[in-house]
Amino acid sequence: MNPLEERIIEEGIVLPGDILKVDKFINHMIDPELFVKLADEFYERFKNKEIDKILTLEVSGIGIAFACGLKFKKPVLFAKKTVSKTLGSDVYTSQVYSFTKKINYDIMVAKEFLQKGERVLIIDDFLANGKAIEGLVDLCNQAGAKVQGIGILIEKDFQPGGKKIREEGFQLESLAIIEKFENGKVVFKESIS
């Protein structure tokens, strides 16, 4: 069992509606040592790809993307969910549906920070239905940037996002893949490697 799966078993809480609460080490409070180990794992999986930039979505993806930025020695860009005076209006925008919040929202990246021809590694915390990843890919497509791979901390295999992204031809690497929730417990998919 890998370190992320161990932490999920020890400290994750399964909530009604197929939601996994990992606030103690990913989504509210971050365990920096764990994130460094996870960034090392993403580096091993994507080290043969040419990467210019790492892209994530605020807020929960920023911690692991930052750790990956240090490991890859590349800048980290995060798509914003709210308009600010400093963001301006020259932005790429995509709409994303949040599974946990059950709302649609716009995500935005300033055009000056995502350029044509850049090679992008997308990193995020969760993958369920894949809407956040679709939005980040859409931002890259609008900019003419190339998605080199997608790294996810926790994938819910029983939801369609991972299958759809893999069918689109992307290299998708998830560090913990949940097969199902059973009696309030997490059941991980067996590793093929």
Which features would summarize this protein structure in a list?
EC 2.4.2.22, 6 helices, Rossmann fold, glycosyltransferase, 6-stranded mixed beta sheet, globular, transferase, alpha/beta, Xanthine phosphoribosyltransferase, two-stranded antiparallel sheet
If you had to describe this structure to a student in words, what would you say it looks like?
The protein is built from six helices and ten strands; from the N terminus they run αββααβαββββαβαββ. With 193 residues, the protein is α/β, with parallel strands linked by helices. It has one domain (3-188): Rossmann fold (3-Layer(aba) Sandwich), CATH 3.40.50.2020. Strands 4-3-7-8-9-10 form a six-stranded mixed sheet, with helices on both faces. Strands 1-2 form a two-stranded antiparallel ribbon. It has a two-stranded antiparallel sheet with strand order 5-6. The longest helix has 15 residues, at 32-46. It starts with a helix and ends in a 5-residue tail after the last strand. The mean pLDDT is 94.
Compact summary:
Its EC number is 2.4.2.22. This protein has 193 residues and is an alpha/beta fold.
Helical amount: 25-40%
- Poorly predicted runs are none
Q: Roughly how many Å is the radius of gyration?
A: 16 Å
Domain count: the total is 1
Oligomer type: single chain
- Please give the CATH architecture: 3-Layer(aba) Sandwich
pLDDT average, as an integer? 94
Instruction: Tell me the overall shape.
Output: globular
Listing every helix as H and every strand as E from the N terminus to the C terminus, the arrangement reads: HEEHHEHEEEEHEHEE
Query: What structural class is derived from the secondary structure elements?
Result: alpha/beta
CATH topology annotation: Rossmann fold
What is the CATH first-level class name? Answer: Alpha Beta
Strand arrangement across the biggest beta sheet: 4-3-7-8-9-10
Strand content: 25-35%
Largest sheet: 6 strands, mixed
Question: Count the strands?
Answer: 10
Summed up, the helix count is 6
End-to-end distance: 13 Å
